[in-house]
Amino acid sequence: MSQSSTGKSNILLFTVDQMRWDCLSIMGHPVVETPNLDQLAKSGVLFDSAYAATPSCIPARAAIFTGMSQRSNGRVGYQDRVPWRYEHTLPGELAKAGYHTQCVGKMHVYPVRNLCGFHNVVLHDGYFHHNRNRTATAFSSHLDQCDDYLVWLRQTAGAEHDLLDLGLDCNSSTVTRPWHLPERLHPTNWTVEQSIDFLRRRDPDKPFFLWTSFVRPHSPLDPPQAYFDMYKDVEMDEPPVGDWVDEELAAEGAYEPTTIFGKIPKRRLDRARAGYYALISHIDDQVGRLLKVMKEYGLYENTTILFTSDHGEMMGDHHYFRKALPYEGSAKVPFLLYDPSGRLDFKAGSRVSEVVELRDIMPTLLDIADAPIPSNVDGQSVLPLCQGENPFWRNYIHGEHAFGRLSNHFVTDGRIKYIWYSQTGEEQLFNLTEDPSEKINLAHSPLYSSKLSEWRSYLTQELEGREEGYVHQGCLIVGRKPTAVLSHIL
After folding, report:
1. pLDDT reported for residue 2
2. Would residue 57 show up in a list of annotated catalytic residues for this protein?
3. Does residue 119 have an active-site annotation?
């Protein structure tokens, strides 16, 4: 059956974990190959300035689930084991609108079996240290409850297998080695296999919302051998390093496999980037696999597809790794929307320059479903932008992340970015149009003094009244203790 009896569009949301905005070949990346995603972008709408306002897994997913800004949803940093108690969620509102809702893969909510409005979840969040605490009295049974992929892997390949078999850390972005089992057993393949199984078992009288949520290319960097071979001998350019980077300090972190800041030997960095790009190409092929099966089921033409990432990965830019930072590699994400049916009247093959954020996903998908958008949603539907209209749009977004001495805030419109490190008071200003790699800090340039004041005032307005006390008498206050979770959701 090609569509539900309601005539509403099915919705397929692809999310990946820790994929940089520029790692699509259609974006001009010199190395990575993503033909299936490129085709979606060529037929749909590609966004040039999409961001995760709080770029790590939990707060980014809170924005997707709730449509709220980080100030509203309360997650302004990374903190595990804080219960999710939101009245309105994306899958919950779609379920109310008559959709059959399913998530496969990573949710990263708490408790881990919290459905958050889904009818069902098939779960693989990746390796979580708090779930693996072997001092817990019921370790084995608890782990079985947390991870459907690991249970499946042991049933399929043998009880001796575990997520640690390769010896790679789940937060290491600097080392890689190929996947050691048959490719069909990789979690990326499993995520698509389970998504296909949902298509087989879905309620044919309802439209569906399927969230296919990949853990990769988040580390461990463990691509199947065939994909690693695509990139392992490719000559890699040097990553950008800004004029503001402390090279001596970077050298001190060079040999820690899970470093956040370190000048990594080029050979090791190139292998890590090869593994990272290989994981992205692997995902691209598996996206193509799922789309082919949707065509076989007669579902493709009536399914609207959105692809994005929860945040990026610095991957050596300015000698930084991982996420939680305000720079483009960490906070900027791929974002593309495709409507095969043509019902939504998109300007196919167009690109949108307006700044969008993960909070815009919920109102966009509810708009597609002709479902009401709850009043507490801060995001905006991007459909008018996709249709070539010129709606009133936000002037900028405010992003932040509690991150110890690197706790940061930023405001950007995709052309200018202002950054403030709350613990040191360091300011940075970048002209992203002329300097997309953020190599030249303009904060101390006399030519940009008025621009610096303007953008600092935007951040001051955003932080006014915050419980941390970041603003006093209209000025930013340095050294106020950051918190990962605001008190109103505890």
Report:
1. 42
2. yes
3. no
Examine the domain organization and report whether 370 and 406 are in the same domain. no
The CA-based angle 275-46-202, given to 5 degrees, is 80
Domain span at 473 = 399-489
For residue 1, what pLDDT is reported?
35
CATH number assigned to the domain comprising residue 413: 3.30.1120.10
Picking from 389, 106, 76, the residue whose alpha carbon sits closest to that of residue 381 is 389
Apex 171 CA angle, 325 and 191, nearest 5: 105
Asked if 276 and 416 sit in the same domain, the reply is: no
- Dump strand ranges (E) for 57-207: 100-105, 120-123
Listed in sequence order, the residues at least 6 apart from 434 whose beta carbon sits closer than 8 Å to its beta carbon are: none
Rounded to whole angstroms, how far apart are CA atoms 219 and 204?
37
pTM tops 0.85: yes
Q: How many domains does the chain have?
A: 2
What pLDDT is attached to residue 131?
78
Strands (E), 166-260: 208-217
Question: Per-block average pLDDT, block size 10, for the chain (490 residues)?
Answer: 66 98 97 98 97 98 98 98 97 98 97 96 90 64 81 96 93 95 98 98 97 98 98 96 96 83 94 98 98 97 98 98 98 98 93 98 98 98 94 96 98 98 98 98 97 98 98 98 97
Active-site pick, 23, 88, 103, 108: 108
Q: Which of 50, 49, 105, 55 is nearest to 75 (CA)?
A: 55
Provide the CATH number for the domain around residue 98: 3.40.720.10
Catalytic residue among 23, 57, 103, 116: 57
CA-closest candidate to residue 219, choices 246, 183, 255, 179: 179
Task: Choose the final residue of a domain: 365, 394, 423.
Answer: 394
Q: Are residues 427 and 390 in the same domain?
A: no
Q: Among the three residues 334, 365, 394, which one is the final residue of a domain in this structure? A: 394
Q: What pLDDT score does 137 carry?
A: 55
Same domain, 314 and 368: yes
Reference 217, options 355, 37, 47, 400; nearest CA is 37
Q: Are residues 310 and 389 in the same domain?
A: yes
CB atoms within 10 A of CB 105: 29
Buried b (16+ CB within 10 A) or exposed e, 151-169: ebbeeeeeeebebeebebe
The pLDDT value recorded for residue 450 is 98
